[in-house]
């Protein structure tokens, strides 16, 4: 957090507070607190993918189609939203279900090369 500019520290700290609050609420609901880990992990993947795009821009680099699409699948934030929406679901969603989804099974991956 020390490497962030002051204005981003506030945002980052509030984001951590939100995840901590979610963890507290889910801890009260017996055995659901581990779901927050997956949400945080997707947030990290999303931030990393955004940083890659920033690096490309700053370097004047134009990625190849496959390279761009691989990153764009993350920056489109689909998995971020799916993972976060599953956190508060009742017993329908198990740890195994969230792990399966976050490991990007084939059904979750668009076939971006075929229709372009």
UniProtKB/TrEMBL annotation:
Is Metal-binding among the key words of this record? yes
Q: Which InterPro entries match?
A: Isoprenoid_synthase_dom_sf, Terpene_synthase-like, Terpene_synthase_metal-bd
Question: From which source organism is this entry?
Answer: Solanum commersonii
UniProt name for this protein? Terpene synthase metal-binding domain-containing protein
Pfam families annotated for this entry? Terpene_synth_C (PF03936)
Where is the organism placed in the taxonomic lineage, from the top? Eukaryota, Viridiplantae, Streptophyta, Embryophyta, Tracheophyta
Which processes are annotated in GO (biological process)?
Answer: terpenoid biosynthetic process
Domain (Terpene synthase metal-binding) spans 1-107
Record has Ligase as a keyword: no
- List GO molecular-function terms, semicolon-separated: magnesium ion binding; terpene synthase activity
Keyword annotations for this protein, in alphabetical order, are:
Metal-binding
């Amino acid at each position: 957090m020390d490497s962030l500019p002051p204005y981003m520290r506030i945002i980052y700290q509030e984001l951590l507070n939100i995840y901590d609050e979610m963890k507290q609420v889910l801890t009260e609901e017996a055995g659901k607190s581990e779901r927050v880990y997956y949400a945080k992990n997707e947030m990290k993947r999303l931030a990393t993918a955004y940083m890659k795009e920033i690096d490309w821009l700053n370097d004047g680099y134009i990625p190849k189609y496959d390279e761009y699409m691989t990153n764009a699948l993350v920056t489109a934030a689909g998995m971020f939203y799916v993972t976060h929406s599953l956190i508060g679901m009742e017993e329908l969603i198990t740890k195994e279900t969230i792990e399966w989804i976050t490991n990007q099974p084939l059904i979750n991956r668009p076939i971006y090369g075929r229709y372009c």
